[in-house]
Each structure stands twice: as structure tokens, then as C-alpha cells.
């Protein structure tokens, strides 16, 4: 019985980081949206859409700097590196066509922003989600 318990503990320890590292997009519960498609998330985060389906102005939030979570988000979402995303936004800002997502210093600041603004969206790890926000999109591996 002890060996079985040890093996089960080892398996759970190996799987836990992967479950915790699942990225999700969260929204304010008052946003009027239940789910977003991948295309909608792409269009919101790349500045193509500025309104949610509910009619509320979309306010995407990025994490500051070149943090690993931000790199994973864009790599999974659009297959681009952080440098490619930075170049994309530099071109759009220069042309004056749209503005980049709001920037939060860390995950807690991103969650605070989403909780306070009906149109705000942020990407976080599933384990970081709390009752202030609602999951509206789950990232695929």
C-alpha cells in the first residue's frame, strides 16, 4: 500500500505543474460574455476588434516586460515570438491605426484591472483564477 501511495504522489507531482501552467483568458463577470473563440481572442489582442460581442469596449491586458507567461500566451495564440509581437505593435503604433493592450505589472494587477473594468480581459494561469473573474477562453497546448 505504501508503494502505491508513493507512486500516486509522484504522478501527481509530475502532472501538477502542467495543470497549473494551463493558460486561460479571463473577463469581468459583468462583461456580458460567457465564451470567446480563439479568433475573437486573437482579434482583440492584436487590436483588430475593440468591442466585445456584448457591445462593451474590449480592454485587453498584457503583462509587463518579457515574462515567460506573456511569451507562452502569444506563442500559443498566434505562433509568434515576443520580438515579433513587439515589432507588430511598433508598426501599428507608428501608423496610428490602433493602440496596444493595457499593461499590468504582474498577474495580481491584471486580475485587479479585470475585476474593476467590465470590458477588461487578461491571460493568466488557470491556478491564478479567482472569484473576481470568469474564464472565457482556454488555451490549447
Short description:
The protein has helices spanning 2-20, 38-45, 68-78, 82-95, 107-116, and strands spanning 23-27, 59-63, 102-104, 120-125, 134-138. The protein is an alpha/beta fold and 141 residues long. The protein has a 5-stranded mixed sheet with strand order 3-2-4-1-5, sandwiched between helices.
Which key features would you list for this structure?
D-Maltodextrin-Binding Protein, domain 2; 5-stranded mixed sheet; about 45% helix; 5 helices; about 140 residues; disordered N terminus; single chain; alpha/beta
Could you explain how this protein is built, in words?
- This protein has five helices and five strands, in the order αβαβααβαββ.
- It has a single domain, classed as D-Maltodextrin-Binding Protein, domain 2.
- By secondary structure, it is an alpha/beta fold.
- The protein starts with a helix and ends with a strand.
- It has a five-stranded mixed β-sheet with strand order 3-2-4-1-5, sandwiched between helices.
- The model is unreliable at 3-20 (pLDDT under 50).
SSE layout:
Blueprint: H1 2-20, E1 23-27, H2 38-45, E2 59-63, H3 68-78, H4 82-95, E3 102-104, H5 107-116, E4 120-125, E5 134-138
Strand content is 15-25%
Domain unit count: 1
How many strands appear in the DSSP assignment? 5
The poorly predicted ranges are 3-20
Give the integer mean of the pLDDT values: 86
**Mind telling me the CATH superfamily name?**
Periplasmic binding protein-like II
Distance between the termini: 35 Å
CATH class: Alpha Beta
* 3D shape: globular
Within the CATH hierarchy, at the fold level, what is the topology?
D-Maltodextrin-Binding Protein, domain 2
* Radius of gyration from the alpha-carbon trace, in angstroms: 17 Å
What is the SS-derived class?
alpha/beta
Number of helices: 5
